[in-house]
């Protein structure tokens, strides 16, 4: 059995549930945050546009830089090959748009395959900030109590595969998950939220980003995504960033709104 999770933070909990031996043999971590950035070539190695997006987003001060040009095509080829092997696949997911997109991506890859697809649902079904739960948000013991694998039936597999095809075609840059469907948009809503929480007298950028995260329904806005959008807003003359980069490339920065 393959066990697929979205991001490294889910590894400890899932390993606790399935056991170290099973995890060593079949736990696969997919690190691409599918909720953001262009998806048109994500399943088409060398995934040049997808890799270019992540290179532009990655903070200059943070090292090492992931090898996006190698890792993203490798993931695409691995997912495409799932239908050609004999292991069933289990996707662990919660209310993260990225986790839900991974499930849809795998369903699409297995669209013409009789290979069993299983899911472990770890969310609430509500992607609003106050209610949502990603896999990594559960303590290992709590995750064990939630872990009730169920096979994805043919109708749901077709629905999920169709959602993935739509996501590939809609040219959105942000995908929010709400009521079981994805809603695409550009970066305008995120940028507006950053400006909303950035005062004219200045404020630590980390605090501004935390305020945006606390009001971001539908997907998990990461610190690196928000730091990139803050740099773009600064380049466009909407805010001023000052100070030393600090931890994670932004820890010592202040943000000030230009009126």
Keywords, please?
single chain, 259 residues, alpha/beta, Arc Repressor Mutant, subunit A, five-stranded mixed sheet, three-stranded antiparallel sheet, 10 helices, 10 strands, 17% strand, globular
Describe what is shown at a glance:
This protein is an alpha/beta fold and 259 residues long. It is built from 10 helices and 10 strands. The chain has 2 domains: 2-178, no CATH class; 188-257, Arc Repressor Mutant, subunit A.
Question: Which helices and strands occur, and which strands form pairs?
Answer:
Elements: E1 2-6, H1 11-18, H2 20-26, E2 27-30, H3 48-57, H4 68-80, E3 89-93, H5 97-109, E4 117-121, H6 140-146, E5 150-151, H7 154-169, E6 174-178, E7 181-185, H8 188-196, E8 203-204, H9 205-213, H10 223-235, E9 239-243, E10 253-257
Q: What percent strand?
A: 15-25%
Number of domains: 2
Mean pLDDT: 96
Amino- and carboxy-terminal Cα gap: 56 Å
Helix content: 40-55%
In the predicted model, the low-confidence regions spanning at least 5 consecutive residues are none
Strand order of the largest sheet: 2-1-3-4-5
Radius of gyration: 19 Å
Kindly describe this structure.
- This protein is 41% helix and 17% strand.
- With 259 residues, the chain is α/β, with parallel strands linked by helices.
- The chain has two domains: 177 residues, no CATH class; 70 residues, Arc Repressor Mutant, subunit A, CATH 1.10.10.
- A five-stranded mixed β-sheet has the order 2-1-3-4-5, sandwiched between helices. A three-stranded antiparallel β-sheet has the order 8-10-9. Strands 6-7 form a two-stranded antiparallel sheet.
- The longest helix is centred in the middle third of the chain and has 16 residues.
- The protein is globular.
- The chain starts with a strand and ends with a strand.
- The model has no long low-confidence stretch (mean pLDDT 96).
């Amino acid at each position: 059995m393959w066990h697929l999770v979205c991001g490294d933070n889910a590894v400890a909990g899932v390993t606790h549930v399935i056991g170290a031996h099973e995890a060593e043999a079949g736990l696969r971590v997919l690190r691409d945050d599918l909720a953001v950035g262009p998806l048109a070539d994500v399943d088409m190695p060398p995934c040049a546009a997808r890799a270019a997006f992540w290179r532009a987003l990655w903070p200059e001060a943070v090292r090492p830089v992931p090898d996006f040009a190698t890792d993203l095509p490798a993931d695409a080829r691995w997912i495409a090959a799932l239908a050609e092997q004999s292991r069933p696949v289990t996707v662990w997911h919660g209310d993260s748009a990225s986790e839900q997109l991974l499930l849809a991506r795998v369903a699409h890859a297995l669209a013409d395959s009789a290979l069993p697809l299983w899911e472990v649902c770890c969310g609430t079904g509500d992607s609003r900030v106050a209610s949502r739960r990603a896999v990594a948000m559960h303590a290992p013991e709590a995750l064990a109590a939630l872990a009730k694998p169920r096979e994805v039936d043919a109708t749901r597999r077709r629905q999920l595969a169709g959602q993935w095809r739509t996501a590939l075609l809609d040219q959105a840059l942000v995908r929010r998950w709400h009521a079981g469907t994805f809603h695409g948009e550009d970066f305008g809503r995120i940028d507006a939220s950053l400006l909303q929480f950035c005062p004219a007298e200045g404020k630590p950028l980390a605090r501004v980003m935390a305020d945006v995260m606390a009001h971001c329904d539908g997907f998990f806005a990461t610190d690196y995504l928000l730091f990139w959008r803050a740099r773009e807003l600064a380049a466009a003359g909407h805010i001023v960033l000052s100070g030393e980069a600090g931890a994670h490339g932004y820890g010592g920065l202040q943000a000030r709104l230009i009126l």
